[in-house]
Amino acid sequence: MMMGTKTTSRILVVDDEPQVVWMLQFSLEAEGYQTLSARDGRAALDEVREHHPSVVLALPADERPRVIVVSARSSLRDRAKAAELGADAFVAKPFNVDDLLVVLHDIEQAS
Known about the structure:
By secondary structure, this protein is an alpha/beta fold.
């Protein structure tokens, strides 16, 4: 870890415990990062839309909600981008509800 590195990266810290948010923000800002914070997922999405952070610090992967992308943009590139962004599954539009339910069932079983 490079101590004292100045950067323009903006990091969004998401946690419902103010003490955790404060500690992370204090530490990150001491390293030169810009920080934002949110107490829950809805507020985090608002911050992402408004401020476009470089990194989001949030729930560990085993505690995060599963994400299924349902989109008419379904090229291999679009599917790869969804996976890169953390989507657990992809369903192309138009879709059959039964197919969506199968994907949903598979996601729940994998949890």
